[in-house]
Amino acid sequence: MYPVETCCLCTVGQVVHTLPEGEQVCGVTSLAGEVYVLRGKECDQVEVFDVINYRLQRLLTVPNSRGFTDMTSCEHYRCVYIADHGVECIHRLHVQGAVTRWAVHDKPRGLSVNAAHNVLVTYPDVRTIREFSSHGDLLRELTLAEDIINPWHAIQTRNGEFIVCHGYFGDAVRRVCKISADGRHIVQSHGGQRGSDIGQYDVPCHLAVDNNEFVFLTDLVNRRVSLLSPTIDFVREVVSHDELKRYPWRLHLDFQRRRLYVAYLTGSAVVFSV
Asked: Which neighbouring-strand residues pair with 113?
């Protein structure tokens, strides 16, 4: 197990800010000095705040959308990606305002961007991870092991392996796994049978990874955020059930500014110092 000292984000401090109440929060990310909050509504779905004072800067509408599941961003291409399971596509919003999209032909759930600046899309129904270029070219598809049921979110590490959280209501196994670069083998895992004790999860649904590859993991039903080592060992609970009064749904880690964004399934998102 990696020593805890190698993680500079091993504790979470005070609540810095609580973003305004509103419609369901489907995702949160930051880009170019601004915070993007994705809401489940018909127009003005993306609220953009400044990253210092969290003042609302503008509202963006994603045209022809039907049902959002996640959002992530890419500093290299200066754009935000939004997963839409209703029309089975990924929307691409550039910071200068251009909005495009590409079809993905299955219902996407989780999004992340890897070291090559490509988009990783997780599909629970078909148990796959697909890698796309920034403009939607399919680069490869990985079929996950048979016991990875209902994958929510995947992040690729620097050595090419994947960290995947999986398990939903009714599933016997709910955990987070490190998976080989070809997607076929589980290298390490944490969790298993549903529960609320240390080492157990109940709908682990979203991930964030710091520069040392320590893993932040939301546990939706247990209402907490856990920290795992790069070898997927439990380190500590960083945001407890008592601190989260609602169900944590999505995560975003702004490593440079030392901020952890925890989006609730309903209403808002909370910013923690780290």
From this structure: 119
Structure tokens at 6: 């190698």
R_g (Cα) of the chain, nearest Å: 17
Residue with tokens 């209403």: 267
Q: Are strands 99-103 and 110-113 parallel, antiparallel or unpaired?
A: unpaired
Q: Specify the DSSP class assigned to residue 63.
A: T
Task: Give the Cα separation of 231 and 159 in Å (integer).
Answer: 13
pLDDT at 12: 57
Structure tokens at 268: 């808002």
**pLDDT, tens digit, 9 for 90 and up, residues 75-101:** 999 999 999 999 999 999 998 878 999
Give one DSSP letter per residue of 209-267, joined into a string.
Answer: E-TT--EEEEETTTTEEEEE-TTS-EEEEEE-TTT-SS-EEEEEEETTTTEEEEEESSS
Q: Are 28 and 12 in contact (CB under 8 A)?
A: no
pTM of the predicted model, to two decimals?
Answer: 0.93
- Are the CB atoms for 217 and 233 separated by under 8 Å? no
According to DSSP, residue 166 is labeled E
Through-space distance between the first and last CA atoms of the chain, rounded to whole angstroms = 22
Residue with tokens 């500590």: 236
Q: Is 10's pLDDT higher than 80?
A: no
Q: How far is CA 85 from CA 30, 65, 89, in A?
A: 22, 9, 7
User: What SS3 class is residue 93?
Assistant: strand
Residue 182: both structure tokens together: 């070809």
β-bridge mates for residue 79, sequence order: 74, 94
Q: How far apart are CA 85 and CA 81, in angstroms?
A: 13
Identify the H or E element spanning 268. none
d(CA 61, CA 229): 38
